[in-house]
Amino acid sequence: MFEGFEIREVDAAGTRIHLRVGGSGPALLLLHGYPQSHVMWHRVAPRLAERFTVVCPDLRGYGDSGKPASDPEHRVYSKRASASDMVEVMAALGHERFGLAGHDRGGRVAHRLALDHPERVVKLAVLDIVPTRTVFRATDQALATGYFHWFFLIQPGSLPERMIGVDPDFYLHWVLGRWGTGLKAFAPEALAEYERCFRDPAVIHASCEDYRAAASIDLVHDEADLEGGIQCPVLALWGRRGLMERHFDVLATWRERSAGPVSGRALDCGHFLPEERPEETAGALLAFFAG
User: I need a labelling partner for 136 at 20 to 30 A (CA). Which of 9, 52, 206, 222 fits?
Assistant: First the structure.
């Protein structure tokens, strides 16, 4: 995987970030989602690297990046903290401005980065998400059933950590298989990497802290920014077989949060667009960021 890419370790203010970088041209930062790592981009990044300098990091708490100790308010795992990591990483690599794409949790970090650091982001692509505040405010029985993990992972006292830790492979396979179009969508070498990382109790705990932050400090930050909005062009992609399609008008939702143009469409897949529909995902991202 990632032929021609270089593995790097970059120290941000809050932790160490593990990443791969490859290609040449304008900088493009790709952020992964839960419960994965940067490896989720392995079918998309090489094609993007034909036109861009592509940076694929593990978010703090995930993969082989650092897992800093959390705090009672979960600020350490806030999207603001993770976004700050990414700004520092890109600066360390020599990129003051860059294109930005994020899937799932990485999309939420990307959203926060575009709000906190608008001068850094040339264009923003968000994959299979709407804003966190929007999801919580729209939650009903159907959405809570589909997004059960949002409410399971935020439970205090290490309850989800203990339960997931009993059989992390079972939990990982259940999530990957149910949210997408089945485990066959994932390359064996990618699935092996997800298993390796998710067997680490520190990753399980940090990912729970990520969700606890989403239900607390992230909402405080989001409420404070309701009068503002994303300033750059936005591309929204989502899975036609997933929860976004069933519960939200995705484009209308992002247009409410954006001052610039918003475009996008659904792909015929579930949640994991870069692995279920890699050619379509790469093509849409190339057309958007190179346009």
Answer: 206
Q: Tell me: the pLDDT tens digits for 152-195?
A: 999 998 999 999 999 999 999 999 999 999 999 999 999 999 99
* CB distance 63 to 214 below 8 Å: no
The whole model's pTM is what? 0.97
Task: Set out the domains of the chain in order of their start, with CATH numbers.
Answer: 6-290 (3.40.50.1820)
pLDDT in tens, 11-35: 998 899 999 999 999 999 999 999 9
Q: Scan for tokens 């109790």, then name that residue.
A: 201
- Tokens 């850094």: give the residue: 120
Catalytic center residues: 104, 271
What is the spatial distance between Cα 117 and Cα 46, in angstroms, rounded to a whole number? Answer: 27
Calculate ∠ Cα 260-250-61, nearest 5°: 90
* Residue closest to 111 by CA, chosen among 31, 5, 17: 31
Q: Of 279, 280, 62, 269, which is closest to residue 179 (Cα–Cα)?
A: 269
Asked, as a colleague might, if the bond just before 188 is cis with ω within 30 of 0, I would say no
Could you list the beta-strand ranges (E) of the chain: 6-11, 16-23, 27-31, 53-57, 98-103, 121-127, 234-239, 262-267
* Strands ordered across the beta sheet of 16-23: 6-11, 16-23, 53-57, 27-31, 98-103, 121-127, 234-239, 262-267
pLDDT at 44 over 90: yes
Question: How far, rounded to the nearest angstrom, does the alpha carbon of residue 287 sit from its chain's CA centroid?
Answer: 20
Tell me the angle at which helices 105-116 and 217-224 cross, rounded to the nearest 10 degrees.
Answer: 40
Distance separating alpha carbons of residues 283 and 260, to the nearest angstrom:
22
